[in-house]
């Protein structure tokens, strides 16, 4: 299953705008993508509340994963977004 | 005439107008068992309620731009969250009725956000508001929210949620009255920011009905229902005089007889910088540096800190900027500075105490402050938060001076520091009293609990005693003693603080004209008389009334 581990680039963590951008991008993917803290329970990256509830701070490492057609590209795109941390 | 209702006055000034009430949150209906055959319909109703709230907020966001629109769009995303609807549906299928299913579904995310802390925990109020809206929609009740009577009004509410205050129209709201909330809560802070009078912690307000005329006095903390026309005219004339006086005055704060009291602004986030720099002030009395450190896994580099401090110092070139070094811990936990497992963080390793565990954190901050001060023309003073012992103040001042920061002070927030203010002042260059924390520690009352507002009232004579002791010690040794915190924003209390010997007041920019006008209308002898009356009063309410009557 394609997966990528990245450090969160946004200074405020996966909060507010960075979280919203991730959820919007995840909702556009052809496959469901999950997000987890390293070693933690994965949550649906299309759920803003679940993403916020991770409480993931700047610099923390998170794991993105997906399965099925287009999973590779989806994980790649979202990982880049999380790492870039556009505010 | 109906009886005058009393609460805690905020913001000063008076206003008269008709009441518009915020729909009171209703008690939830008693739990109802949902048999399996009714579960699909109940689940569908729950989903429809969530969609309804999303649609309402989308409509409301449509004409807005900027920050206000972003706040609402984020709320739409939350309430449309598929995980939320799935969780609520699962609750219904397990036998809960819709109200309880929504409460449980929102509650499970709230609990996770609260546990995450910091900025994440601040979203809990949004979730509570969305839950109330969804339940109102489900039950066919009026949606809680700000009234829009279409004319200027006095807004009366149990308390205001942050989401409501963001939408408040300053053209329409003449005054705020809340049953709950305290003098340091967000309603009070908002009222000061808008410059409207407010009375908070006013349980009697529950009796006020829509359309009833009230006279709100933010200085005395009173709400007078059905005021006589003569009273309204008198209050309006006094208010016009007050506003005119405030608008005409400018420049440094001084009493009628020329005693100087520096008027300074509080700055805590980069977005506040422009408004703060444009205000007519002698500088910054409290520059909170936490914004640079919050919600990060590691401390910012010296370079990043230098640049951020430099922007503030540049905006205040030629003026004083009092910088508070990192105040982590308690309600502002930081992963790299605070222990996650303290049972009682307000009494734990916070403020200056974090520097004992991680000396590099303070060293780097002082290095960055010294570099930024060197490159800019502001007069930079530094002070440490949560100082308890004179030796701590001395050690901090020595470290600051070693970095080339010549003016170093200590905050007085702990009763022990106030009781030993003379020793504290001897070892550093100035003192600054943080009244919010000093009240919390003097009265053993958690400042985040609205129910303890009375204990946290900055008019409490015991608190004024500690301010008095601190200011006198500073006076004897020739050290400036400032007050930052919500107490400094109240014009009547500012007179008392001046009379107690305080030499500077630091508040939100909107509060400064009122403070300047109050000082200009009184001599130092007047202020001393008011201070004596307040400090020797038996309780906070009497202190406030005495000063309102004498001033």
Automatic annotation (TrEMBL), chain A:
Keywords: Cytoplasm, Phosphotransferase system. It is found in: Cytoplasm. It comes from the Bacteria. One of its GO terms (cellular component) is cytoplasm. Residues 1-87 form the HPr domain. SUPFAM superfamilies: HPr-like. InterPro entries: HPr, HPr-like, HPr-like_sf, PTS_HPr_His_P_site, PTS_HPr_Ser_P_site. Coiled coil: none annotated. One of its GO terms (biological process) is phosphoenolpyruvate-dependent sugar phosphotransferase system. General (non sugar-specific) component of the phosphoenolpyruvate-dependent sugar phosphotransferase system (sugar PTS). This major carbohydrate active-transport system catalyzes the phosphorylation of incoming sugar substrates concomitantly with their translocation across the cell membrane. The phosphoryl group from phosphoenolpyruvate (PEP) is transferred to the phosphoryl carrier protein HPr by enzyme I. Phospho-HPr then transfers it to the PTS EIIA domain. NCBIfam families: PTS_HPr_family. This is Phosphocarrier protein HPr. It comes from Streptomyces sedi. The lineage of its organism: Bacteria, Bacillati, Actinomycetota, Actinomycetes, Kitasatosporales.
TrEMBL record, chain B:
Mg(2+) binds at residues 413, 437. GO terms for molecular function: kinase activity; metal ion binding; phosphoenolpyruvate-protein phosphotransferase activity. Residues 26-38 have a biased composition (Pro residues). Gene3D superfamilies: Phosphoenolpyruvate-binding domains (3.20.20.60), Phosphohistidine domain (3.50.30.10), PtsI, HPr-binding domain (1.10.274.10). The keyword Kinase applies. Its EC number is 2.7.3.9. Residues 250-521 form the PEP-utilising enzyme C-terminal domain. Its cofactor is Mg(2+). This is Phosphoenolpyruvate-protein phosphotransferase. It comes from Streptomyces sedi. The lineage of its organism: Bacteria, Bacillati, Actinomycetota, Actinomycetes, Kitasatosporales.
